[in-house]
Predict the structure.
Amino acid sequence: MSTLEATNVGHQVGHKVVLEASNVTMRFGGLTAVNDVSMQVHDGEIVGLIGPNGAGKTTFFNCLTGMYIPTEGTVKLSGEVLPPKPLKVVRAGMARTFQNIRLFGNMTALENVMVGRYCRTSSMALTSVLRGPKFKREEAATRERAQELLDYVGLGKSAELLARNMPYGDQRRLEIARALATDPQLLLLDEPTAGMNPKETEECMHLIFKIRDSGLAVVVIEHDMRFIFQLCDRVLCLVRGALLIEGTPGEVQSDPRVIEAYIGGSDDDDDEEGTK
Amino acid sequence: MDAFAQQLVNGLTLGSLYALIAVGYTVVYGIVQLINFAHGEVFMIGAFGALSTWLVLFKGQTGLWVLPIMIIGAIIASVVTAVLMERIAYRPLRNAPRLAPLITAIGISVFLQEFVRLFYGRVPFLDFPDAKQKVPFPQIDVVTGKAFEIGNVTIQRSAVFTVGALIMCAAALWYFVNRTKMGRGMQAVSQDPDTARLMGINVDRVIVVAFAIGAALAAIAGVAQGLQVTNINFKMGFLAGLKAFTAAVLGGIGNVWGAVVGGVTLGIVEAMAVQFIPGTFGGSPWKDVWAFALLIIVLVFRPQGLLGAKVVDRA
Amino acid sequence: MSKLTLSDDVRATHGSKAPMLAMVGGALVLLSGLLSWSADSTVLDDVSVRFYPIGAQIYIMVMGVTAIVLGVLLRKRPAWMSPGRGLRILGWATIAFVLLLALFAIGYETGALANLNEGLPVALVGGVLVLLAGMVTPEVTLDVRRWPKLSSSLEIVVIVVMMAFLLFAVAHALSLESWTFIAFLLMLVGVAGAVLGTGIGGYLGFVGANNRRPLLLAAFLVAFLFPFTQDGSDANMSIATQIIIFAATALGLNIVVGLAGLLDLGYIAFLGTGAYVGAMMSQSAFATIGWKPPFLVVMLIGSLVAATFGLIIGSPTLRVSGDYLAIVTLGFGEIFRLAMFNLDGNNGPKLTNGPNGIPGIPDLNFFGFDFGESHSIAGFELGRFANYYLLLLLLIAFVILVFSRLNDSRLGRGWVAIREDERAAEAMGVNVFGLKLLAFAVGAALAGIAGTIKAHVDTSVSPDQYIFLESAFLLAAVVLGGMGTVVGVLVGASILKLLPEKLREVNDYRLLAFGLLLVIMMRFRPEGLVASKRRQLEFHEDDEELVALTQQEHLLEAQAEAK
Amino acid sequence: MSAMLEVKDLEVAYGKIKAVKGITFDVQEGEVVTLIGTNGAGKTTTLRTISGLLRPTKGSITFMGKDLTSVPAHEIVSLGLAHSPEGRRIFPKLTVEENLLLGAFSRKDREIDSDLQAAYELFPILEERSKQPAGTFSGGEQQMLAMGRAMMSRPKLLMLDEPSMGLSPLMMKRIMSTVTTLQEQGTTILLVEQNAQAALKRATKGYVLEVGNIVLAGTGQELLASDDVRKAYLGED
Amino acid sequence: MPQRSVVMIGSSLVVASLALTGCGSRSSDSGTSSDSGSNKVAKIGVIAPLSGDLAALGKGIQNSVDLAIKQANESKAIPGWTLEISAQDDEAKPDVGKNAATKLASDKDVVGVVGTLNSSVAQSVQPVLAAADITQVSPANTNPSLTQGADFATAPKRTYATYFRTCTTDSIQGPFAAQYLFNTAGIKEVATVHDKKTYGQGLVEAFTKEFEKLGGKVVAAETINPDDDKYDAVISKIKPANPAAVYYGGEYPQGAPFSQQMKAAGLNVPLMGGDGLYSGKYMELAGATADGDLATSVGAPTDTLASAKEFVDAYGKGGYADPYEAYGAYAYDAANAIIEALKTSLKDAKSAEEARKATVEAMSKVKFSGVTGDVAFDEYGDTTSRVLTVYGVKGGKWEAIKTDAFK
């Protein structure tokens, strides 16, 4: 574990603001799922998003990726307000993975990544049917880039495996490769280590560092605290839809409110320091 | 004005018929999210069930007293068909991709039509008419015959029967859904089937009940149709089913009252279209086009229907 | 899935008897072909004579030989084969063959089962033995890595032999009538099913995938040669033209259903659009549009108009999906039919002549080549329909080209992604709406082209050809054959168009059987007869064995490609 | 005395992915047993398998001597096993009273009315709003309703899945104290919680799940005192 | 190899046992094949819907042709030749009909074809048969354009020399009905309704032209969709115009319920139509209120013509499962017309194929007294018979009211 710490400590966060979410609020009917949350992410930075179940992390995530249109507030990527459409968000340079892996199970690993290249390629019906040199070039380039990305995440040898046939940890990494194929500036990872064993988790951490080192900004939602505190440059803790605290892993980890939110405040009357 | 009132009456009659069939679509959809495309055929079989009952038990009789027994015969035929359909064809596909049950439904629909067409006239020991063409439906005293005239507006007796049947069925359905344990169970399953199972509700049985209720109402509609148009045929379920489905969507599929409102609305729209759309695009030949156009517009712009509040994610 | 199977214990103890059972059964089946089947000499081209096999008797002997061969194979099983499965299929087919012919062809047609002679009962016993042999054979997992490795020229020979066989089978089948035709079909299904079921099917697929170009070439050569086998007769060519038109349209639908995963229940409208455009701009005296451009222009206009309709009909996909979309398309299909029915000048403008349609469409004439006339090529007489057949062959080649190239491209990957998980696809930057629209537009355009030709082949166009049932038939061709595959749709279209032509006796039961078929297919083999691997996986999400097999085959293909 | 609920070597998979990888635990009559662990540990999956919504790929579940692995979900309730699912899952369009009556769906006896009163006594707010659609309720009220509904089947064993999820501290306290009340009334409880402290404090026995495995077991107090629990939740080394 | 011996023993046992049972013939092997002997064969094809909705009508046509052929063979009408029937199903679909025609055209024995039922099918069958010089006689097509071309009203021009028909076109029946209503029944105001099909629309157009020429007034003109079951919206539109009769262009499956619903809705006037209504089924579907409804049909009533009575008797004795239906008589006449022509054309022919052209030529000279009246064809191939009868429903039966030659 110490090696990991070292990687993180020696690292310099960039100065360009990649993602800026300001005062995002999301209401469903009477229920406020996200309440006035703001967040900034710089290039080469890993930001963690934590909070107990039902705290609104996933909803916030969906606001960022264009799945939901926030009731209030804006989300900017490199200074541009994001269009509220997943498709356009991807084009703008934000890619994501899913909490429950959503790979295209009956496609091979390579094909999965090639789908990720979809928005960066352009051949349409006519070119596809005519198969001119441009089409062949683009197809070859897509394949090559996809293979590269598979190698990058360490799945180079599994290119021809059906996604559904891959081990759980590999599926997670494949999902990351697929997301990287869209050439993002910012990568959103939704519980990337859920269901992983410690070894896989560690490999995953290495991979995220590698991605960060290539200059991407990374936002991670996680429940595995050990993982998040080792990984992130900054951590935000959401509770009941609102931002509870934002700070370095050390600050957050030692904050009594976070401890209360997680392990659970005691609910007896004689023991009430945590609650208000 | 007379024309308007007259077409309102026509539309209401037609709409009541649609509504009775539409309930079947909506109840089943509400519970299993399945468009039972073959429901129109259940309606058709109801009509043939009523006719068979009459032919076997009361041939030649026209007294009003035979009507209830005919209706029971119709209901038995329809319910048995619907329940078998669910059990044999749909249940094994409950977790299959959505394409499978829809194609199955088309298959059942064609099969049932052809089954009636080919074999109705060949039932052993019974002298049933050949069903390859239109078959005359018995005309019963009181509910058929000379129409009522109110001013210049004609109200046919069968129309009174149809609207009356709808009102009674709607009331009975309301009571069942809201006041009985099984009805509550149905509502629970439609809102959250998994949790309903945790309550001890046998989801399979609820689904069967849903099919049965839809079938019973469709059977009554079949009788009403027979009385109104004086003949029935093996194809009558296709268009009627499609229109009823339109009605169900119009009202908000899954919502029983939506089916009623949607049915009546569609009926009135159709009748008015015949009378009031001017020029060459008006009149009877285009009325189905308007009905389908309405269906498409509703599906595209308000898929939750007139009464539906919740936006359904159909992905 | 409910399968009639024996317990593993029974198989373990009696498995060793399987080869013998198969051979004895096969011998009995073989023998039955030499015996008399019927006391009445009028059925099945006279099968009452002993030791003089004819028609159906020869077919059953082929089945017997197949069973014996499988029995031999069972004793020395190659690792990539499962003769047991083949025997099961063959056993069922033999039993079906015997019962159908005994009960209907002989019993029903001659009016008495007493006319049945010893042949078929013997075959029945044989069939049961073959089935038993299949059932007691222990279940094996296929090891496709042990596929025989042939040199590429040998593989091409395999393909050529396959194709030659196909040509022979089709030409032979078309020359048959009624019960003999059924017998042939049953034999074909049984033997082909048995052979392919042993695992050879997967292997042939592999060989085909390795030699795509020779395979295609051979296939088209076979199709091209077909009219020359018809001895100048146009009767079968007429059916063949219809099969191609139907298949081309079904392939268009397959882009929508098979590739994009959208259900379209009004697809026949696109064929209709093309046909009406073709008719309205033809030289027919009933044509309603004064402008009569050359046919190639008409074809282009037909496809453009159809594509435009495709875009209109597809546009609700932005907001509607799944069953709702299916119903929307059904609504559009009905509106099309009603509009064609109505637009006769009384109700709306005079475009279509209403229910009477546009008759009297003249034959095509390309640079002096009149499609209506017979032409003699290399001593072979080609009639009117043979001319159109050859033209349509070009059309379907084009359709197949479009279909397969789209499937194997960036767009094809996008479609698969949409089918697998629409929201994930969108989150990966796939233009879901655009791709769905494209599927509708391309499919519709292809159907539109087919329609313009159809107008000339049929010489008339009327609205009653474009009813919902026809859309259901198109869908059935796709579903029956196999969603997302070319071969599947060709097979499905041929079956659906050919059977009613050849089975006039049971024609009244055609639709009944059709409905039943749809239900049964969805229940037991939703992916279709010739399934695309991916579709098969989609429909059998939890069949791990299938997944493993597919994986292995895919790896082999990838290796072969890399070479 | 044999255990009321006995789970042995339970394995549950979604397709190829195993969510529960062979866990064994038991619940004795009168106990409050808690399963704790982070998201994705397999707690909810375990409960859903016990109540028949999912089928195990391996292992056995025995409740009061009866094997549950092949009993359909709707019959399990009448054996005396109620499950209040994660996320409340009340029926939003039905009224409070209808929701409660659905809890007693499998019962045919005449004491349903008195049990309804008992539920109202447990949560008086439900009686006040008994004719309102449940969908209009706040999260805490919905949780009360879900618990009341589960109690309507007169369960011998009550399974509660994350009753405090997303609730305010005050409401959470109210719910947790109800757990104590129910325990005192003689209901055996299997509690799944993220709020480890609150749960363990009441538990006679606790199990910590991690990625489908039980990694720690002990009495509530033992686990509460354990550093490992803290580690599991906050990643403290 | 123990297996092999088992096979041998098993198979020889089976063979032996079968030989022992001596499974001989249990039904007469001779069959009933015609004693054609030295006779040459010529075939008359039938193209009609033998399955589907209209199968009843199609079967009636098939059986009637069959009857005519049997009678001709029995009476040895054409010495040295035996006639056979080759019936093909068109499912009432143009493309299927075209296949059937192609099949018949490639059968070298076929010289003539009776069919089709539907005008739409005829349109796709005509060119195929014409290309092979096969005579086609339709018992039921009423669309004028089939014989007189697209501009039949202004510039009639024969389209296919091989096409003939025994039924009258719409342009005769409609006016005949108009004359009856206006002159005989004294009705001056009518409403018209048709189903938009060739037959119905043509009938109504011809009717309207004549009726207005006579000085009558068409107070409402509506159309229905034949797929519909309920017509109350249309009826409600007609009723306020107070017509004294309704002229319906279409067939009984829609016409009869229309009459019933019309009367149930309080519009108590007679409904009149063409031979499409003249069917026994009409009363079944129209119910008790059908009394007073009218229909025209071609020819004199069958019970007044001796030839017609013979046909009905012979058909009854023929043992056919299906009734001859509306077009049986026309089909019988059509087949006999072909047979008449064959008498000349086959006389010196060596093969049936050779006689095809001569048959077409002989058709124009055919003239005999048929079941539906005198059978002969004019320069377009239309029947010259112009005798029509008005029938009315009385006590649940059609009764002839007036027979007359159309002027």
